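Our preliminary data section would be incomplete without showing what the modeling component actually yields. Below, a chain of 200 amino acids is followed by its predicted structure, encoded as tokens that our downstream tools consume directly.
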Amino acid sequence: MALKSFFTKGKIEVGCDEAGRGCLAGPVFAAAVILNHKKKYSLLDDSKKLSKKKRDECRIWIEENALDWAVGIVEAKEIDEINILNASFLAMHRAIEQLSSPFDQLLIDGNRFKPYKKVPHHCIIKGDGKFKNIAAASILAKTHRDEYMQKIAKDFPQYEWQSNQGYPTKKHRQAILNHGSCVHHRNSFQLIPPQLKIKF
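Predicted structure:
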């Protein structure tokens, strides 16, 4: 199914999506994108459907050709304080408030959102597979977050974030069991499931 350019024709729309919501470590990232619909790009799609190589290519195109874009971040400590749902909304708000171009409404991936000021918004389930600007936001959120996790993985090699990006893989959870958690872990999450705990 071809991605749509608009939710409401004639309106300037911002696509918003987040990455890293289900991770045990690292921030949640969100992106806000206003596309220039005069410029077409066939590779644009939901970030989950693209290979890393294609995501990286798309990121370059989006950042060079979008009318405006921005990325917002909420760190693990903040996630623990306000919970992951509110952190996802906050990351989107932080991305939106960095935009310098005017806009009329927001298109949000998912089924819930905390209103941003008085800007109209529409929540769209699986929106990253339906609208070009949400797909673009999903690509920026994912690639910027992956880049960040690669960077901090160098200081904490035991968790192998360069390959798991902080997601709850078996190896990641075993590393937490062996080495404990660190400053980048979300302590409000169940880092180690009961079946992995040491049996005496």
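The longest strand covers residues 13-19. The longest helix spans residues 132-153. Preliminary results of this kind motivate Aim 1 of the renewal.
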